[in-house]
Write a structure and sequence with these properties.
With 321 residues, the chain is an alpha/beta fold. The chain folds into two domains: 204 residues, 3-Layer(aba) Sandwich (Lysozyme-like); 109 residues, no CATH class. The strands form three sheets. Strands 1-6-5-9-2-10 form a six-stranded mixed sheet, with helices on both faces. Helix 7 crosses helix 11 and helix 10 crosses helix 11. InterPro entries: Amidase/PGRP_sf, Amidase_domain. Pfam families: Amidase_2. This is Peptidoglycan recognition family protein.
Length: 321
């Protein structure tokens, strides 16, 4: 069972993950704990505000409405990626949702469809309201989505969630039937979960923009030229047609065939074949390993496509050489 983070621990976790925060008013003691339980906590829930404007949205989420007292979440994520902390404790954000979804979140397994509202989510979920009209037209800037990812990862890391999967982070639409948030161009919960999982495989201060650079055509060309130089090592030691013919003529005596050594050669036929085989196997393994490593660092890279690009470039470089 996970006890909720204290205000200090939450702040430290967010800052450690590179989240820019603003502590709004008396957020540290602002909560709805007097009307219900806060904890154990099991996940993070993402919403959109159906509002525009940072100041007014933050105030709304802090104060609430006449029919729904605040805080309406724990943090408001602005378009520029700033997270305004507005509550610490139980907040009116999740409402009642599907208990089967909660069970899946706890087990970190695939989410079932939400088809009932029988469980109090305000007890078990941290909530972030993200400033967006929710009309499926208002865009989600990359800075805002990155803040969603980092804030979610910070809480998951602090609790040790995400070891078996990333379903510790869900959208309101995946919790309560009839809800649609978050939605709009530039946001999807599957993408958010994928990026949270990636962050959790790195230290908290990891910056993907500095670490994961796309593989350019120039990079591929460099790899190809290096591979071509390796291929060129065989040019001076390849069997010419006369050597091959003599090997064929000698085939009646297999043991003599493999012992054949061309004039001026430094090894017999078996030596040529074993060396060529081992070098080609090593070269192809190195190319595949490199492609896989690059794809792991940059999830936009398709390892198979990268290998194919490198092999085409090797063919071109070898032909030119």
């Amino acid at each position: 069972m996970a006890s909720p983070l204290s205000a200090d621990k939450l702040v430290n976790a967010l800052k450690g993950e590179g989240v820019r925060i603003v502590e709004h008013r008396s957020w540290r003691t602002h909560n709805r704990n007097h009307v219900g339980a806060w904890g154990p906590v099991h996940g993070v829930m993402i919403h959109h505000t159906v509002t525009s404007g940072t100041s007014s949205s933050v105030e709304l989420c802090y104060n609430g409405r006449s029919d729904l007292p605040g805080p309406l979440c724990h943090g408001v994520i602005a378009k520029d990626g700033t997270v305004y902390l507005v509550g610490n404790g139980r907040a009116n954000h999740a409402g009642k949702g599907d208990g089967d979804v909660l069970s899946a979140v706890i087990a970190e397994r695939s989410l079932p469809a939400d088809n009932e509202a029988d469980t109090d989510g305000n007890t078990h979920f941290y909530g972030f309201e993200c400033i967006n009209l929710g009309d499926n037209k208002d865009p989600w800037p990359k800075e805002q989505v990155e803040a969603i990812v980092r804030a979610s990862a910070a809480i998951c890391r602090a609790h040790g969630w995400g070891k078996e999967g990333t379903t510790s982070v869900i959208g309101h639409l995946e919790w309560q039937p009839g809800k649609i948030d978050p939605r709009g161009p530039g946001i999807s919960m599957s993408d958010v979960r994928k990026r949270v999982a990636t962050r959790l495989r790195h230290p908290a201060d990891w910056n993907p923009e500095e670490d994961d650079m796309p593989v350019s055509d120039a990079d591929v060309e460099k790899i190809a030229k290096a591979a071509a130089r390796q291929v060129a090592l065989y040019k001076d030691t390849r069997l010419d047609s006369r050597d091959a013919r003599q090997m064929w003529d000698d085939a009646a005596s297999p043991h003599r065939t493999w012992q054949f050594r061309p004039e001026g050669g430094d090894r017999d036929a078996w030596g040529y074949l074993t060396r060529t085989h081992s070098e080609v196997v090593a070269l192809r393994a190195a190319v595949s390993e490199l492609a896989t490593a690059l794809a792991a660092r940059d999830e936009s890279v398709d390892a198979d496509e990268l290998v194919a690009r490198i092999e085409r470039a090797i063919d071109n470089a070898t032909a030119e050489g």
